[in-house]
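Because discrete structure vocabularies remain unfamiliar, it helps to consider an illustrative case, giving the amino acid sequence and backbone structure tokens:
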Amino acid sequence: MDQNLVPVLDSVRAFLEREHGLWIDGKPRAALSGRRKDVRNPACGAVIASVADGEAADVDAAVGSARRAFESGVWSGLRPAERERVLLRLADVLEAHAEELAQLETLNQGKSIHLARAIEVGGSIEYVRYMAGWATKITGETLDVSIPAPPGARFTAFTRREPVGVAAGIAPWNFPLMIALWKTVPALAAGCTAVLKPASETPLSALRLAELALEAGVPPGVFNVVTGRGEAAGRALAGHPLIGKVSFTGSTEVGKAVGHAALDNMTRLALELGGKNPMLVLGDADIDQAVRGALLGGFLNQGQVCAAASRLYVHRSKFNLFAEALSAAVAGMRLGPGMDLDAQVNPLVSQRRQQAVCRLIERGRAAGARVLTGGGAADLPGYFVQPTVMADLAPDNPVAREEVFGPVLALMPFDEVDEAVALANDTRYGLAASVWTNDLSAALDIVPRLQAGTVWVNSHIPLDPGMPFGGYKESGLGREFGKGAVESFTEIKSVCIAH
């Protein structure tokens, strides 16, 4: 065996060999149709597991389970401190199974085992502990009202926050475990029950999460998982009349469809969608620091990050120096499977994604872009794309306009800051952006002018559970993280007492 490859745990092998069902009422069950779907390892394309292929009838069963659990009060009726303790136990259970979960993510999604350990699992554990604390901090407010009638009457008014009911979480394939927890843990903290639909490409960690939640003390029916295709299970879940809120992360196009399905029932909605995120490198920026930032911001998880740096606008005085340094660093990156400890670039999640990214590179090249390094699929088994840097892009070049969701960076020069800001904002997206400069005044002038939900300065990509995350324009509705994430799973009720 290659000494650089992480040995697969026996528990992971055993999990992969099981015949996985849906998770409803605290136990696995087959899809009603009996259909199943293969799960593949992106590093080689081999089938590593099989899961149930759920459809509308299965979604109905899962939502029914969650609704019964909610109405019974088995979870919503607990004292907030009791819900907090269960969620803290969940974090402890996740920590105890951290390496197992990290390996499942790497084998199923393709990402580096380093990233899976540190962010996908390690960051998720911190997130669960942070959100658990909000279970005991959901508050209303008292209101000093001025109701004029009847004469002489007095009123005491206040608000209370109550859970919306059954929360539907539809998670993507780029960070399957982490974003599944983003969708479900705030809902559980608020007293909701949940139905989770993971992406059809990456269902394994969601199924293991359901088992671990039960082990931690989450009652049966409170946390349910339906694996299946988006057009079948996802559509049925978004449009189900018993869902109180839908939280979706994915592409803008699919997010719009989810929104339309939810709107028919006036279901509460949160959408965290695509991005075409600019990185502005000013003339005084530290080039070495900015290059390191571009490598992390652009190639983390092979660029399969909604907030990834994708359009790099560099002051013309530093453009050639930056392009040469970045291209040299990218050309030296080592490709390999996620279980390879030395690999710096790993496969994309699927052959479909590999082909889509390569097509976009070719479209960009045909439109006049110059490839500085990379430029296509790698000659390796699995779904690899060479890390790619492109220059000489016109503003309407498809690589400069469309979300790539792959390891591709577009470099473009600018002369004036106003020009850079205008170029950065010239997109239908508005998820994230970064500014690279040692001039504090310049940074603080640019930040409010950028149409993005998150703006980093001399950094690009790190998130924190307490920092709201979401987008402007077609990058979505609502925010993940922080107090607002929990409150978004509640309804505000006004109470007015005459006395």
Remarks:
- The chain is about 40% helix and 20% strand.
- The first strand starts at residue 19 and ends at 20.
